[in-house]
Amino acid sequence: MKEILKLDHIQKFYGNHGNITKAIHDISFSVGEGEFAGIMGASGSGKTTLLNCISTIDTVSAGHIYLDGTEVTEIKEKALARFRRENLGFIFQDFSLLDTLTIFENIALALTINRTPAEQIEGKVKEMAKSLNITDILNQYPYQVSGGQKQRCACARAIINRPRLILADEPTGDVKLVRKMS
Question: pTM of the full predicted structure?
């Protein structure tokens, strides 16, 4: 199986001089293509910080992160936005939807930023919305829908460009699952 993500002795410190907080201490693991990896821990244990480092939103204090063999910790600032846009999908804990855009527009935003031709956007958004069962809310605004619907919108926006890696911070926090027990 092809290795898509590799973390090699990642460390993250905050503060300076005598007041240093170690948020991440010596984390190493790899994820193969098609695999799912979950990071679990107590509140405040560094899970979101780790995701922020993997996504290049934050920088590591030590160690190396590789995506498809490219060391992301060495990508220059000017190239980071393009790298994120072309390779990463984000599902944030707080959804990060824009309240002034409809659900359709929030999903389409990812395509627009990636310079998808305008004539393709509507079809792609509707197909993605159908797969996530949110077609009936596409013309509504985030403040008009439930938390689970917002989360599915955030998921649609994250995966619509078919990124190499999807980073999700509590992606099912507002999605309720019911299973019939026999």
Answer: 0.77
